[in-house]
Amino acid sequence: MGRAVLVPLLAVLSLWIVSVVRAEDAYKYYTWTVTYGAATPLGLSQQVILINGQFPGPTLEAVTNDNIILNVINKLEQPFLLTWNGIKQRKNSWQDGVLGTNCPIPPNSNYTYKFQTKDQIGSYTYFPSTLMHRAAGGFGALNVYARSVIPVPYAKPAGDFSLLVGDWYKTSHRVLQQILDSGKPLPFPDAVLINGQGRASFSGDQGKTYMFRVSNIGLSTSFNFRIQGHKMKLVEVEGSHVLQNIYDSLDIHVGQSVTVLVTLDQAPKDYYIVASTRFTQTVLTATGVLHYTNSQAAVSGPVPAGPTNEVGWSVDQARSYRWNLTSNAARPNPQGSFHYGTITPTRTIVLANSAPVINGKQRYAVNGVSYINTDTPLKLADHFNIPGVFSINSIQSSPSGSGGASLGTSVLGTSHHDFIEVVFQNNENAIQSWHLDGYDFWVVGFGAGQWTQASRKSYNLVDALTRHTTQVYPNSWTTILVSLDNQGMWNLRSAMWGRQYLGQQLYLRVYNPTQSLANEYDIPSNALLCGKAVGRPHH
C-alpha cells in the first residue's frame, strides 16, 4: 500500500524540482539571421548589417541566470561572429565569440551559442567581433534584469530605453578594413548616431521617471551624454549598483555602458538628447529628442553644450563613480561584503600600449607585441594540445622600455584564483579604452604620467566600482584589480576597434592544472572546428 502512495509522491516531487529549476533558470531560444540591407542613417543609403532585418539588431532581454540558446545564421559573404560585451561566460569561454575562442561562422552556415547570464544584472551590448563588421551594424543592446525575488535599489521606472550611441562612417566596413590593412589608421568618423539614427526620439509622461541605458557602441570615440534641462541619476554601471549621484552630463568611453534614471519634471515640451565627441579636435554631435506626451512645443534653443575641460573634468567624474557597498547586485548579499581592498595581489602586470610602425605599416602594440590572429582559435589549440599555435608568456608582463615592436600572438599565462593588479600605462597622447572578456574588475586608480609603486597610495581600496571596460587618459595610467575566478582563454583588448584590429590586444590564459567541470565546462558538442583543429573529435 505504502509503495502505491510513494510513486505518485516521487513523481510530484520530481515535477516540483524540475519546475523550481525552470522557474529560476529559464531557457530562452532565438534564431538570428545576419544579412546585408540598406539604411539611411545620414540621409544617404548605406549598406548595413541587419539581424532579423533590424538595424540596430534586436534588443536581447534576459533575467539573471537565464540560459540563452541563440542560433546565428550567417548570410554574409564573410565569416562572422558575435561577442557578448560584458557577459562573463562563467566557466564557458567556448561561447565568448572572439577569434581566440571561436571559429567564425562560415558564409551560409550557422552556430548556436549556449550561454548563461550567471549572477549578472545590468546594461550590456553585443556586436560583431570579426573584421570591421561592427562598423556596419550587427550590434544591439543586451539588458539583464534582476530576478523577481531580488531587491533593486530604486523604484521600478515607468519605462526603459536602450540608447546605442556611437561614431559612424559613411565608408563601408570593407573599405575601412582595407585602410587598416594598408597600414593607415582609421580616419576621423563622419557622424555620431543614436540607435542608428540621426534623430532618435523617446517619449514619456510628465512627472514620471524613466530608465536610460546608454552604451558607447562606436569604433573609436568617447562621447559626453546629456539631456537638455534634466538631471541624470546614475544607478548602474556594467553590472555594478553605484552610489546614486546626480549628474548634468556623463562621459562614456568606447565599449562602456551606464544606466541612469531621468524624471520628466520640466515644462511639457520636447528637449534635446545630446551626445558629442570628447578628446577630439573636431566635435561631432548627435541630437535626439525627449518628447513629453503632453508636449506643447518642439525642441528649441541652443543644443546644450558639453564640458569644455577635457582630462581634469573627466577624471574627477570617473573618481566619483562609487560602488554602493550596502546594495546587492544579482545576488542577495551586499556588494561591499567582498573586501577587495584587503587582498594582496599575487602579481602585478603592467601593460603599455604603443603605436609602432612595423614593416612600413601602422600597427598598435602592447608591451612591444602587436597581436596577430591565428587560423586555429587559441582555446581549441589549448584544448586539443595542438603545438605551434601559441606559446604561454609570448608577451612580457611589463614593458621592456626598448621601444621596439614585433608581430606575435600574445598569450599571458595566469593561474586560476590569482588576484592580480593590472596597470594600463598610456604614454600616447590619445585616450584609450580597455576591455577584458570573462570578468569585471575594480577600477582603483587613475593618475597622470608614469605609474610607480608609490602610485598605490592613491588607490581607492574601499568602494571602487566593478566594470568590464575602463578608460585610460592620455599620458596617464589606470589600475584595475581582477579576481581570476573564471578559468578559460580571455581576450584583453583595446575597445577601440581599429586599434584592436591592428594588434592592441592579447589573451589571458587563466589556467588550473586540475581539470574539473566545477571550474570549466567541456567543449560544446556543436563547436565549430577550423585551422589545425579540423577533424578532431569533440570529446
Your description of this structure?
InterPro entries: Cu-oxidase-like_N, Cu-oxidase_2nd, Cu-oxidase_C, Cu-oxidase_fam, Cupredoxin, CuRO_1_AAO-like. This protein is mainly β. Helices cover 10% and strands 37% of the residues. Strands 9, 10, 12, 14, 15, 16 and 18 form a seven-stranded mixed sheet that branches. Strand 1 and strand 2 form a beta hairpin. The N and C termini lie far apart (47 Å). The N terminus is likely disordered.
* Major sheet characteristics: 7 strands, mixed
With helices defined by DSSP (H or I, 4 residues minimum), what is the helix count? 5
Shape: globular
Number of strands: 35
How large a portion of the residues is in β-strands, by DSSP E? 35-45%
Helix content bin: under 10%
Extract low-pLDDT stretches: 1-22
Average pLDDT, all residues: 94
Question: Layout of helices and strands, plus pairs?
Answer:
Elements: H1 2-24, E1 27-39, E2 46-51, E3 60-63, E4 67-74, E5 82-85, E6 109-116, E7 122-128, E8 140-145, E9 159-168, H2 173-181, E10 191-194, E11 201-204, E12 209-216, E13 222-227, E14 232-237, E15 240-241, E16 246-247, E17 249-252, E18 257-263, E19 270-278, E20 285-292, H3 311-320, E21 347-354, E22 357-358, E23 361-362, E24 365-366, E25 369-371, H4 378-383, E26 406-408, E27 411-415, E28 419-426, E29 432-436, E30 441-448, E31 466-467, E32 469-472, E33 476-483, E34 488-494, H5 497-501, E35 505-511
Parallel strand pairs: 1-4, 3-8, 9-12, 11-20, 21-28, 25-26, 27-35
Antiparallel strand pairs: 1-2, 4-6, 5-7, 7-8, 9-10, 12-18, 13-17, 13-19, 14-15, 14-16, 14-18, 19-20, 21-24, 22-23, 28-33, 29-32, 29-34, 30-31, 30-33, 34-35
